[in-house]
Each structure stands twice: as C-alpha cells, then as structure tokens.
Amino acid sequence: MTHVLETGFEELNRENPNGSPAIRGYNIVDGELKSSSSGATFESRNPAWVDDCLGEFPLSTEEDVHAALKSARKAFPSWSSTPAPTRGQVIGNMGRLLMDYKEDLVRLQAREIGKTLKECGGEIQEAIDTCLFFQSEGRRLYGQTVNSELQDKELFTYRRALGVCGIINACNFPSAVPFWKMIPAIMCGNTCVWKSPQDSPMLSFALARIMHEAGLPNGVINLVHGNGSGAGQSLVDSADLGMVNKISFTGSTSVGKMIGEICGRNLVSASLELGGKNPLVVMPSADIDNAVEGAYWAAFGTAGQRCTSLGNLILHQDIYDEFMEKFMEMVENTRIGDSMRHEDVLYGSMLSEKYAIDFLKGVEICDSDGAKKMFGEGAITDDNRPTNFLGEASDGSYMWPHVYVDVTEEMSCFHEEIFGPLVTVVKAKSFDHALHLANASPFGLSSACYTNDRLEAYRFKTGIKAGMTGINNSTTGAEAHLPFGGVKDSGNGTRESGIWVIEAYSYWHAVNDELSGKLQLAQMDVEEIHIEEADADYSALA
Ligand code: UN1
Asked: DSSP alpha helices (H): ranges in 15-116?
C-alpha cells in the first residue's frame, strides 16, 4: 500500500492531442492510494477537446465506500479531540498550498470541465477564501455561558462534531463547493467520505492530495471516485446501516429529495443544495445598460451551468424593447470556445457530454411549449456555428446561446431548470406582476431586481421567496462568507458558507454544572419574587 504523498502522479502510456499527460487516479482511504475492489475504472475526458483523456479512475463499489466510511469512523475520535485552533491551522495550510498551486489547478480544472480559465481562477480563489475564513473560525468555535435560575450552578453550551459526513457535489463547481462542505465539516471536528463528481475526478484527486500535504491526518478525508448510481448511492444508503451521520449534497432536486427521504427515515442530518430557476426582474427606473450586462452574464457565464444562473428574465413592458435590442446584440456576438486555446471567450464547452444531452432536452421543452425562439440552434457544429465561435466544433460539446421570448407561467419551460446557455424571457405589466412572476416557479435559490426606485427594491427584498437576492446585480456570484442556499424546491433550508454553515456540521451540547453539592430542582426550587398588590394611584399624575 502506498501513502498518497509517497509518490508523484503515475502517467499512463497515452498520447493526448495537447501533449498533456493522462494519469492513473486512485481513491484515497486512510491516506492510502486504492483501486476499486472490482478493478473497474472510468475515464475523465476534456469536454472541450474530447480526444484529450485526463486519466483513469476507480469505479468504486459499495465495498470501497464502506471501507472509506470505516476509515473516517476510525479517524474521528482523534480528529474531533484535536484542538479546534490546530484543526484551523491545517485548514490554513490548505489555503496557502492552494495559493501556491493556483495557476496549475486553474488549468487542470479548465481542462477537466471546460469552464473558462478566468472562471476557474475565480473558483479556486473561492476555495482559498473558504480556507482562510475557516482557519480563524477554528479559533472561534464559540459556545456560551448561560446563567442558571438556581444558585451555585453554571450552564454552558458547546459545539460538538456530528461524526462521519458523506460529501457529494456536482462537477460545475468542483473545487469551491466541496470546500464549502468539507472545510467547515473538518473545522468542527468531523471526518468525511467524499464521493467526487464523475466528471471531475482528476481535480478532486489533486485537491485531496493537497489536503493531505497540508498536514491532514490519514482518514479525516477519504476520497472515492465513481458514479452517482453506484458509489454515490452506496454512500447515501449507508445511512440505513448507521455508518454515516451526515450527508451533504449539491445537485438536482429529484436526487436531493431521494437523499432527504433516506436521511429522514434514519434521522441523519442532511444539507441539500438543489436546483434553481432564478428570476431577474428589470424595472423602468433601472440603469438599462447595467441590467443588460448583469442579465447577460447571469444567463450565459459558465455556459449557464451554475445553480445560480439566470432562468426567467422578467422585463417590465415599458423597457422591454429597449432592453431586448441591447441584450440580443450581446447574445448574437457571444465569443464561445476553449479558453485554453482562445482568448476572451465568455463560455466554453458543456461540463460533459451528459450535461449537453440534458441541456438539449431543455431546449426541446421550450420548443414544444410554443415559446418563441429569438436565438439559438442547439449544439454548435462545424457547419452550423454562431459568428463568434472559435475553434473546431467537433472537438467538444459546445452549445449556442439560446433566448426564448413570449414565455408565460403556464409553460413548463417557465418552471423547469434548464441547465445551460438558455434564458426564458417573460413580460411583466407592473411591479406587482413582476414580483408575482419571480415567485411563481417552484424554486427559490437566487433572484435579482434591477431598479432605482428604493421602495421597489425594498418590496422585492421583502416579497421574494428566495435564499439569495441581488439588487442591481446578477443572480450569480455569492461570496464565500455569506450564507448560500435556497427555499422551496431549492433545498431543505440548510446553508453553506460563512458562520451559518457551522450549524450544519455541529450540534449544540448543553451542559450544567451543579456546584452546590445538593440536588436543586429546576423550576421547583427557584426563588420566586412576588409583586405586592398594585394599589398605587397614578390618576392624579395623568
Ligand atoms: C453552484 O452553482 O452550485 O454564487 C454554486 C455563485 C458561485 C457558486 C455557485 N459562487 O454563482
């Protein structure tokens, strides 16, 4: 058995078109490199250049997941009793190592999921910010002293770790989101089994290695690769076997509901960050150019593959024509391509072939609903490409930007999350109508309103049912120290990031210390202070 830090990366004998190596990837269990117990593997491929293979990774089985859970359980007593400031130091080291490796990680991430280099830079920075924030939270993991109702008795609260946490994230934010989960988890003293996204195993492997390099003891974070229906399902089902104390999941609402059911019947804590159909309202008083820019970025940045991406663009009828003219000009000139080979592209390929297939189903929904297509032709091909597409379309999975107008709340495309570069545009008659439309989808993740009317901004903030709201800003771009999460079908109310996430990875332990040396009964032995009969006369003063 080889410890993860004993060797470098093992290169496979393959020729990639870009000259980059393909490697053999492993699970990391108790600090050791492991293959799948079945010997099965899967490949990670660059979605922007599918001939480029990043490596082969273990297709983990239930047995592999159980071994990882046992390793996390074994590491728990020692890690949870390590002083929280020391745990914070390890997390700080992770942040510093990420800074050292940032440039390489950015390129690796772009290569594995096709997101632009600029956005990958922002994302690795979000992982760094998370480490730096939680390094010092390790010095703050406060409890309280509480006054007792009895004499010579003290009350205290402590935050305690939950135990073993199962971590499942999506590949669209393959470094920031697992760090949002695992960094607070380990800061609180938990240990983790991380099921990496099937489309970003290489980056996950590199990140888990860096975590060990930062001084993380063996078994505190265990990495298993594989698919959702195999390793992911085994991790969730381990709740039925009493092997896990928490599942934290970012992904679709349907999978989240299934996970919530399994956790619920076992009373296992679940953090569920699910889909969104995020509305962005533009009112007549808004700075229209600013609103166009914000809506364009929210809809098409990351090729629309953020859970916070713009879904329904809700335009007040008075500015509809002016807005759409400016908006469409930007859409039609969108620069699309592989950012590793072309400069200044807004977005690159879809995250993987699977995301491309699902996205095209979403386009079909818009068509069959009868929404009017203003722009977009599905997949970009060598013969059918927008003006500013750069490179060879056949290299990867690239999509046109799509705009559908005349959308109404009766249509399914108004309600469905369509994960990709597509926006559905809805016309509103008034502010109240716009707010109604913004609340009319089943989701409640992010939201935005462009207005320069302070009362409208206030009414939007207080009337919208969403976990996050931007005023005169796009729907995306949450910062690492604000609570992230949604309401309605967007989640179960738990939050990630900032101090709020600590609630999701610890429980409150109330301790009372009776110093009197005798049994004092709460409520019954409490001294009562009586009120004298109220017989003073204030009438003369009135
Ligand atoms: C996600 O898409 O799951 O707020 C996370 C944002 C990013 C995170 C998105 N900072 O858009």
From this structure: 62-81, 84-113
In a shared domain, residues 300 and 268: no
242: tokens are 């009493």
Does the CB atom of residue 476 touch ligand 1 within 6 A?
yes
Residue 273 appears among annotated catalytic residues: yes
Question: Is the overall model pTM greater than 0.90, yes or no?
Answer: yes
**Known catalytic residue: 413?**
no
Q: Tell me the per-residue pLDDT of 20-45, one tens digit each, with 9 for 90 and over.
A: 999 999 999 999 999 999 999 999 99
Which tens digits make up the pLDDT trace of 430-442?
999 999 999 999 9
For residues 424 and 407, the answer to whether their CB atoms sit within 8 Å is: yes
pLDDT tens profile 367-408: 999 999 999 999 999 999 999 999 999 999 999 999 999 999
pLDDT tens-digit map of 43-102: 999 999 999 999 999 999 999 999 999 999 999 999 999 999 999 999 999 999 999 999
Annotated catalytic residue: which of 165, 307, 366, 413?
A: 307
What is the distance in A from the centroid of ligand 1 to the CA of 302?
10
Residues 459 and 367 in one domain: yes
CA distance 341 to 116: 10
Nearest to 41 by CA among 52, 53, 30: 53
Residues 250 and 304 in one domain: no
Q: Which of 533, 524, 458, 496 is nearest to 270 (CA)?
A: 496
**Sequence-separated (6 or more) residues with CB below 8 Å from residue 489:** 253, 274, 275, 442, 443, 444
The domain of 402 spans 278-481
- Cα of 359 vs centre of ligand 1, distance in Å, is 18
Per-residue pLDDT of 238-277, as tens digits, reads 999 999 999 999 999 999 999 999 999 999 999 999 999 9
Measured from the Cβ of residue 403, the count of other Cβ atoms closer than 10 Å reads: 25
Mean pLDDT, rounded, for 497-521: 98
CATH of the domain at 267: 3.40.605.10
Same domain, 235 and 306: no
Examine residue 530 and state whether it is found in any structural domain, yes or no: no
Q: Which residue has the tokens 């502010």?
A: 431
Distance 484 CA to ligand 1 centre (A): 9
Cβ of residue 397 lying under 6 Å from some atom of ligand 1: no
User: By C-alpha distance, which of 248, 311, 328 is closest to 439?
Assistant: 311
The Cα 78–Cα 91 span in angstroms is 16
Three-state secondary structure call for residue 369: helix
Number of domains in the chain: 2
Does residue 532 register a pLDDT over 90?
no
